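hey m, so remember when u said the tokens were messed up on ur end? i reran from scratch. heres the input so u can diff it against urs
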Amino acid sequence: MIFDTHLHLIDQSALRYPWLAGVPALNRDFPYDEYAVQACRAGIEGALHMEVDVDPADIAAETSRVKALSREKASLLRGAIASCRPEEPGFAAYLERQRADRFVKGFRRVLHVMPDELSEGALFRENIKRLAGTGLTFDLVVLPHQIPKAIALADLAPDVQFVLDHCGVPDIKGGAEHPWREHMAEIARRPNVVGKISGVVAYADAGSWTVETLLPYVEHTIEWFGWDRVVWGSDWPVCTLGGGLATWIAATHALLAGTSADERQQLLSGNAKRLWRL
């Protein structure tokens, strides 16, 4: 069975997603029921909802809506990685409110579409340090050239647990492995960073990628992080840009051919359940 650590749900009737206007293929509703049918058929036993970079005014509403869905019968939803704005003075109060909600398992601030300087701000860094001792994780979504910025955050907050999304967002379609390879090896040396095997099908050529296309990127990530520091995510519905949920799960099983049952269990569910106390 698989635990999905990276599920996005989109409900444009209730929430605003400014960025969707620039991605026509994703600019529609992607409801829980649509995901659940596919997930249950593919062996997914539970999921964490990953924030979808909603309009800042809708951040609290997004978490509330996902939490409500988790209460429905047979729901796969086990928690949420909530959106946040560490660069703003209100973060400390926001953190205290979220700490009181056991459904919230961590936070993410989208960085790969933001100026590099955002994560270098004094207030941003001070607020990230506030996560120490809370048990709440912080997901890092950065481009390869930004991985050194993520490394800086991990070093500044060694008691905070970070999760590096999407194998570090490599340019698979362009075949660019450097400096991605070097940066991934370096960030993996930080024991407070976990690597997430997710998103890669969306970075490959949708019409021609194969398991062999993905293998060097997934293999390199697992090699450096080790089997005890990797988790799996669907990145649904973004994965539909590269074939869809069932295709990504089939590719995952093919990528793991030859590994031990214990290694597969750690990556596909065990590490996530331990990390987020599920």
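this time it looks ok to me. The chain is about 35% helix and 15% strand. if urs says something different then somethings off w ur setup not the seq
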